[in-house]
Design brief:
With about 675 residues, the chain is of the alpha/beta class. Among the domains are: about 150 residues, Serine Threonine Protein Phosphatase 5, Tetratricopeptide repeat, CATH 1.25.40; about 150 residues, 3-Layer(aba) Sandwich (Rossmann fold); about 80 residues; about 70 residues, Arc Repressor Mutant, subunit A (Orthogonal Bundle). The strands form 4 sheets. It has a 5-stranded parallel beta sheet, with helices on both faces. Strands 1-2 form a two-stranded antiparallel ribbon. It starts with 16 loop residues before the first strand and ends with a helix.
Length: about 675
């Protein structure tokens, strides 16, 4: 039997303060370390091209120190490869060095969140708010997330670097609610719809003359450059003044230390005339030609990876090798300037991604096999993470075929549920991208299999645009494969993010299909569980719209199905939902009876999360019946469990309730302690 009333401090650093409840009437609040300040900057460049005039203009504007209005907006525009992002990060470092951003530096590449040309702004707001306060739960909708973000950034001295904006409409909702903040935006062209903001506009042109040759000198520090300044200037001209090309050229020169610089320039010229390629393309071709076969192969395969950054293990999956060759290839590509670091890992610039695709033209490599290998490696890792994070549960995906090429590819080291969830969040863009690849390539079982762990991830990280896209593709793959179990599961998964975005009619239609298909399933325990699940989801949709009376028959039907197959957990869950419905319908005696049964079963099954949730709902029902003395230890149990599980959402729900509970009891001191702790958990003062 699980211990219901244990209370511990587990040595973990929690957001805000730790509340230790000896009795419900005495709360001990111990201040904890403040949350870490985000510093999302890649390593500094030892060879940054000065752009001293632009830097001075921004630093002067930031020094004005306006105390009203919106943040200072720095708009850097120019063609790809011109060095906008590098300048943005350099400005952020300068501002940090001058003490202008003690509350942190955030970075967001809007292209990471772009789907079919549009950015899901609600997801962008959620990402920024989460980075500022990871423990604070996010509201679901755009309007609520925007208010949440304003509250999180109020009066903050921070820098936000926003990459790859296409319009002011993508930027304006992401501006912090602080005149002390600085927002650095990069875009290809001028953002004409940013009028009314306090801004500095800096269109960036190619580096010329001494700036361009200076970047070459700083990149390679080679005496041949000084010995032949004319050849150095010619090489800079070949790079069209693009920092992205100049850095590649400098590293290419460094690699061929024993050749005369003029000979290297002649090789570029011959390539230019022979192939008729643009000058910059010739520079990249020369760098590519200098790669070892393993690094060159990885370079050609990298555009198939759907995430913004690449890890050693994912590179090994692309190559179908062990970790050592992948690590060597990544190191070589970074040294050649064909990959560059950003805050979350190694990234391939869009210009270089295009070049890599062109180098892959006519490649005998079977791209379908590469994409399948990558999808199945991510499927394997996601399933492992899901098992750790959610425990054993019914899964419906058909088994994956053996993939011999993955035999040497290492798994991600995952030791505990927290690490598993961290991996799912860190790789969520690649995982959602793999669902798209799987659906496009007809790998229907893989698309469904990836959606199942993404459901576990979605419950804690509501990236709505990605979830709706992925679960929609999962549903389409299930339909195409005519897999009845997957059709039911995918439609149910898709319904939840839809109803959380208040798209109730769409959710209802998917659940109509799910319930109809579930009725055609057989009588195995798994099929009956899935049938009960579809009916339960339909009941939940009714409940979130406030129609508890309509929800009750569905919860009762699902409960009967679980009783028939002797599934105690399913019975407990439906009993809990029926108890909540009874509370909402003003049936206190029925609610107390149902929730007592659910809590007893959840505790006996050692389901800590549900034991805590049933305790909370039972306490609320008892409180509504005036039985405060019985409610108190149940609230205490719910709070203790939420703290042990590090569930900020559950802690806040219990603390908010305890605030009013103690006010009702005439205990203002304890009520204030609960209110203070909830404020700290939310990131307040």
């Amino acid at each position: 039997m699980a211990k219901e009333n244990t209370n511990r401090v587990d040595g973990q650093v929690h957001a805000g303060a730790i509340v230790q409840a000896h009795t419900i009437g005495q709360l001990h609040v111990h201040p904890a370390a403040p949350p870490a300040v985000p510093w999302q900057l890649p390593p500094g460049l030892g060879h940054f091209a000065d752009r001293t005039g632009e830097q001075a203009q921004v630093l002067a504007a930031a020094a004005d120190g306006a105390e009203t209005g919106g943040p200072l907006l720095v708009a850097l525009s120019g063609m790809g490869g011109i060095g906008k992002t590098a300048l943005g990060f350099q400005l952020a470092r300068e501002l940090r060095g001058r003490g202008r951003c003690p509350d942190g530096i955030l970075h967001l590449d809007l292209d990471d969140l772009r789907r079919e040309g549009a950015v899901e702004v609600a997801d962008a707001l959620g990402k920024l708010a989460h980075d500022l306060a990871p423990a604070v739960p996010l509201p679901p909708g755009y309007a609520d997330r925007r208010r949440h973000y304003w509250a999180a950034t109020q009066d903050k001295h921070l820098v936000l670097v926003l990459d790859n904006a296409r319009s002011g409409a993508e930027v304006l909702p992401l501006l912090p609610a602080s005149a002390s903040a600085v927002v650095i935006v990069t875009s290809h062209g001028r953002l004409h719809d940013l009028d009314g903001t306090r801004s500095v506009e800096l269109p960036l042109g190619p580096l010329t003359g001494e700036d361009a040759t200076g970047l070459l000198h700083a990149t390679v520090a080679d005496p041949r450059l000084a010995a032949d300044p004319d050849a150095t200037a010619e090489l800079a001209r070949r790079c069209a003044g693009l920092p992205a090309a100049l850095q590649v050229a400098g590293r290419w020169v460094r690699k061929h230390r024993h050749r005369e610089l003029r000979r290297l320039i002649d090789e570029l010229t011959a390539e230019l005339h022979r192939e008729g390629v643009p000058m910059v393309e010739a520079v990249w071709d020369a760098a590519y030609a200098s790669l070892t076969p393993g690094a060159a192969r990885l370079y050609r395969l990298l555009p198939h990876h759907p995430g913004p950054v690449i890890t050693v293990q994912a590179a090994a999956a692309l190559l179908g090798t062990g970790p050592a060759p992948a690590e060597d290839a990544l190191d070589e590509l970074e040294q050649a300037g064909l990959l560059h670091p950003r805050p979350d890992g190694l990234h391939q610039h869009d210009l270089l991604r295009g070049h890599a695709l062109r180098r892959a033209t006519g490649d005998p490599e079977d791209t379908a096999a590469v994409r399948r290998r990558l999808v199945r490696w991510y499927r394997r890792q996601a399933a492992r993470a899901d098992l750790l994070a959610a425990g054993p549960r019914l899964t419906v995906a058909r088994p994956a075929a053996e993939e011999p090429a993955l035999a040497e590819v290492p798994d991600i080291p995952l030791a505990d549920p927290h690490q598993a969830m961290h991996w799912l969040e860190g790789e969520h863009l690649a995982l959602y991208g793999c669902v798209r690849i799987a659906h496009e390539d007809g790998l229907d079982a893989d698309a469904v299999a990836l959606c199942e762990p993404l459901w576990t991830h979605f419950l804690d990280h509501q990236h709505y645009a990605d979830a709706i896209d992925a679960f929609g593709r999962g549903a389409a793959s299930a339909d195409r494969a005519d897999d009845p179990l997957a059709v039911v599961r995918m439609r149910c998964q898709l319904a939840r993010p839809l109803w959380e975005q208040r798209r109730y009619q769409e959710a209802a239609e998917h659940l109509r299909i799910a319930v109809a298909r579930a009725r055609l399933l057989g009588d195995t325990p798994d099929e009956r569980k899935l049938r009960a699940s579809a009916v339960e989801f339909r009941g939940k949709l009714a409940s979130v719209q406030g129609d508890w009376a309509a929800a009750v028959p569905d919860f009762e039907a699902a409960r009967e199905e679980h009783l028939a197959i002797d599934n105690p957990y399913g019975v407990m869950l439906q009993t809990y939902l029926l108890g909540r419905a009874a509370v909402a319908l003003g049936q206190p005696d029925r609610a107390i009876a149902l929730l007592t049964e659910a809590h007893t079963t959840a505790t006996a099954l050692r389901r800590d999360r549900m034991s805590a949730r049933t305790a909370y709902e039972l306490a609320t029902a008892l409180r509504g019946a005036g039985r405060h003395a019985e409610a108190a230890p149940l609230y205490r149990h719910a709070l203790t469990s939420a703290r042990a599980r590090r569930s900020t959402t559950d802690q806040l729900r219990v603390l908010d309730t305890l605030t009013t509970f103690h006010e009702e009891l005439g205990d203002p001191d304890t009520a204030e302690a609960c209110r203070t702790e909830a404020t700290r958990l939310r990131g307040g003062a």
